[in-house]
Specification:
By secondary structure, this protein is α/β, with parallel strands linked by helices. The radius of gyration is 23 Å and the shape is globular. The strands form 3 sheets. Strands 3-4-5-2-1-6-7-11-12 form a 9-stranded mixed β-sheet, with helices on both faces. The chain has a 6-stranded parallel β-sheet with strand order 15-14-13-16-17-18, sandwiched between helices. It starts with a strand and ends in a 14-residue tail after the last helix. The longest helix has 19 residues. Helix 4 packs parallel to helix 7 and helix 11 crosses helix 14. The protein has 2 domains: 262 residues, 3-Layer(aba) Sandwich (Rossmann fold); 184 residues, Rossmann fold (3-Layer(aba) Sandwich), CATH 3.40.50.2000. Helix content is 39%, strand content 19%. The structure holds adenosine-5'-diphosphate. Adenosine-5'-diphosphate binds next to helix 1, helix 14 and helix 15.
Length: 490
């Protein structure tokens, strides 16, 4: 099958969040199964020079955006069985930032979507499936269906669109988007492109794509409700027979405590002894008191409201009254930077916070901590809790979205579980669950070891998820029966 992924970020080239991990890991897995997989992302100024030097120029052309004509180059790099294409426009992507700031996001990513569709005949690739991700490539299925599908080259293409986070929709003025993409007035009704008086790239994708997926079965259910639906729940309910939840995998080669070059000592589920050295090294690196007996709680992720940080804010005094250490790595909202900076100076030697993007340190935190806290308000899938489990760090999570699908709270009666969880979005519920985890950490080493071992031996590979995507690709092409999302997958 010929499959094109379109996305705004992808590891190892550029990453701000889990989307990049998903695209960068899923594409090679599908390629290894014999499919012709290609990926298109923007050629940002952030992409490291050593990749740029290896790129080969494929073609260049002009993209018409309203009255403007903009240069577009397509550069390529073949690696890991995948052809990676980079959409080159210094004007739109040669900037000091990846997202936001310029006020012309609709034009940048409108250009990106138009350039992708226009480039396909020129690079000689006619995909069977275009699998687009998140709002930045949301106009790919919409433009293709509205303006290209009558052309024989495009008429056979089927579209899958994956929501990685419903909160980010790409909402702009209708006039601005019309000016760039030339979509006539008759398209701006509620059943098509209009959305609460605005243009909305994500909604456009959800209306025009053939199938919708999101990154966990629970999130697929949740986003059909008003609480989680971000004002698109009505549309998602209307499309519920084409809305599937497929849980993400991990790059299990990169995240492997048995071979990880970033960490102080290697270890496995069978012999976890190296984890103690990782803990001591982390305490030393971050200036924490070096003490093997105090549990370290880790947090790695965007410092955004989504991640439940206001719960931590609410009980941080109570939490630090316990015998714990807290390590935070993340970038984001200044109120959380302030919170954790304050905590670091208030609880010297017991709290460490770093506000940078540092993948090596992230690995050392996953390996060196005892517990990993992720009390998200909502969580489409969440990779961090899976990475933590792979490193024998016991997750404490709120039961939502992908956290609910990957972490099962320890049940002292049946012995089931691989972590700890709470349901209500409530700071004291979270605190009680942390205290419950600490009780096992200190007083029941056998249970703790069992939870670590279960986490470390879980299957986080992409194989099962890749098989589900392939089933959907085949189904949407009419090559195999398409199961209804309400039926359980095999
Ligand atoms: P989201 O996609 O909502 O940001 P996920 O848990 O799905 O959250 O994925 C986040 C990914 O980004 C994880 O691999 C996590 O380790 C990584 N990450 C987040 N912030 C940082 C940071 N400051 N430094 C290094 N890695 C980070």
């Amino acid at each position: 099958m010929k499959i094109l992924f379109t996305a705004s970020e992808c590891v190892p080239f550029v990453k701000t969040g889990g989307l990049a991990d998903v695209v960068g890991a899923l594409a090679p897995v599908l390629a290894r199964q014999g499919h012709d997989v290609r990926v298109m992302i923007p050629l940002y100024a952030h992409i490291p020079q050593h990749y740029v030097e290896k790129m080969e120029h494929v073609v260049d052309f002009e993209v018409q955006l309203g009255w403007r004509r903009q240069y577009c180059g397509i550069e390529k790099l073949v690696d890991n069985g995948v052809t990676w294409y980079f959409v080159d426009s210094k004007f739109y992507f040669g900037r000091s930032y990846i997202y936001g700031m310029g006020g012309d996001e609709y034009e940048r990513f409108g250009f990106f979507c138009r350039a992708i569709l226009n480039s396909l005949p020129l690079i000689g690739f006619q995909p069977d499936i275009i699998h687009s991700h998140d709002w930045q490539s949301g106009m790919v299925p919409a433009l293709c269906k509205i303006q290209y599908a009558h052309l024989p080259f495009y008429s056979g293409i089927r579209h899958i669109f994956t929501i990685h986070n419903l909160q980010y929709q790409g909402i702009f003025g209708i006039k601005e988007v019309q000016d760039v993409l030339g979509l006539g007035d008759s398209l701006w009704t509620n059943d098509k492109l209009e959305c609460f008086g605005c243009a909305n790239f994500l909604k456009a994708a959800l209306v025009y794509t053939d199938l919708i997926t999101t990154v966990s079965p629970s999130y697929a259910e949740e986003i059909q409700t008003a609480y989680y639906g971000e004002r698109l729940d009505g549309l998602l309910r209307a499309r519920k027979h084409q809305l599937y939840g497929v849980i993400n995998g991990l790059d299990v080669v990169d995240y492997n405590p048995a071979t990880d070059p970033h960490i102080a000592a290697d270890y496995t589920a069978e012999d976890i002894s190296g984890k103690a050295a990782c803990k001591a090294a982390l305490q030393k690196e971050l200036g924490l008191d070096i003490d093997p007996d105090v549990p370290i709680i880790g947090m790695v992720g965007r410092l955004s409201n989504q991640k439940g940080l206001d719960l931590v804010d609410y009980i941080i005094g109570d939490l630090m009254a316990e015998n714990v250490q807290l390590v935070v790595l993340g970038m984001g909202e200044s109120r959380y930077v302030n919170l954790f900076s304050w905590a670091e100076s208030e609880y010297k030697g017991r709290v460490a916070a770093r506000f940078t993007m540092d993948s090596g340190l992230a690995h050392r935190i996953y390996a060196g901590c005892d517990m990993f806290l992720m009390p998200s308000q909502f969580e489409p899938c969440g990779l961090s809790q899976m990475i933590a489990m792979r490193y024998g760090t016991v997750p404490i999570v709120r039961e939502t979205g992908g956290l609910r699908d990957t972490v099962l709270s320890y049940n002292e009666y049946t012995g089931d579980g691989n972590g700890f969880s709470f349901f209500n979005y409530n700071a004291h519920d979270m605190l009680h669950v942390i205290q419950r985890a600490m009780k096992y950490y200190h007083a029941d080493k056998e249970v703790w070891r069992l939870l670590q071992k279960r986490g470390m031996s879980g299957d986080y590979t992409w194989d099962a998820s890749a098989a589900k995507y392939l089933e959907l690709y085949r189904g949407v092409r009419g090559e195999a029966p398409l199961r209804d999302p309400s039926e359980p997958a095999d």
